[in-house]
Amino acid sequence: MKADTVLTLTPLDINGKPLTPFHFTRYEVPEKISFGGDQMLAVHQFIGGARVIDAMGRSDIPLAWSGLFFGSSALVRARYIDYLRTNGGACLLTWAELSYKVVIQTFKADFERFYQLPYSITCVVVADNAKQQLTAPASIDQSIGDDINLASSLTSLIGDGPLSSAMATLSTAVKAVSSFAAATRATLNTVLAPLAIVYSQTQSLIATASNTIQSVTTLGGILPYNPIATQAQNLLGQVTAMNSLPQLFQLQSVLSRVGTNISGISTAGQTVTVGGGNLFKMAQQNYGDATNWTDIAKANALVDPQITGVQTLSIPSVPGASGGVLSQ
Q1: H helices within the chain, ranges in order?
Q2: Of 11, 19, 85, 298, whose CB count within 10 A is highest?
Q3: Which of 50-64, 80-94, 133-147 has the lowest mean pLDDT?
């Protein structure tokens, strides 16, 4: 996992409502988190080797990782996670598009300095809250387009003016890209820049909503400068923040997925040097589909699938969905 990956552990109250989220940052974010698990099977073995297997349901592996609390607040942050362990309550663990309801089983921190505490944590999965992947992954263009449409819908529900304006700019930038798989770094940057703005605005709204929910108010007009109307307005703001927070978390997850997909395009490609041949064969070797020759052609500003002489060609990491049609 990259250091800028958003890994969040949000405690839930007894009614399942989210409280103040804890965001792991910098060295606290692990290199990876393994997820998945087993299918519980009841295997009935019969004479002659015949078998009947009953699928009993999923059994998720614990989510475990390690990191480093570092800085002036390291000890405070480590003790807070340990408090969540001793409290034994359910938490919402989210990163990218993954979301799990968990209970912390084990937390261990090694005190090396007050500002330096390596830690490890293990969470037992209660439920998988993420939408299941029921179909094969779509093309990169379709995936990004679908996520942008979902993000636009969530933005409309949230109803924040600056966020909606930033989202409109991002949508326009995405629509201007004809093929992400064959896009240059400069083209990808025209999307990454407005994406960063929308993401930053979303994080700011999450922080504001969380603070609003946690602010404690007192009803009544007995105290000076504490009129009932003001307190009623504050309570209304808390209700509004509580309703918008799940949508903001979902928007944050969708934007993170878009950023991951685009970053993967820009970093995972390769270059090969060939002497003659054709793009059909290269597409078949790299993608398993000769019709994706057009993605290689676009990435190298070619119009002829035949390769003449010795050339060094860029191979996009993810093919598009052109169907073998080269459009300029």
Answers
A1: 74-87, 140-158, 161-175, 185-214, 228-267, 279-287, 293-299
A2: 298
A3: 133-147
Partners of 94 in beta bridges: 8, 99
Report the distance separating Cα 202 and Cα 196, nearest Å: 10
Rg of the chain over all Cα atoms, to the nearest angstrom: 25
- Lowest mean pLDDT across 14-28, 139-153, 231-245: 231-245
3-class state of residue 130 by DSSP: coil
Write the single-letter amino acid at 145: G
CB 27 within 8 A of CB 117: no
Nearest alpha carbon to residue 320 among 290, 298, 284, 292: 292
- The alpha carbon of 24 is separated from its chain's Cα centroid by a whole number of angstroms, namely 14
Residue 23 pairs in a beta bridge with 8
- What's the predicted TM-score (pTM) here? 0.46
Tell me the residue type at 35. Answer: F
Residues 288 and 207: their CA atoms lie apart, in Å, by 45
CA 210/CA 278 separation, integer angstroms: 57
| Longest CA–CA separation in the chain, Å | 88
Out of 204-208, 212-216, 267-271, pick the least confident: 267-271
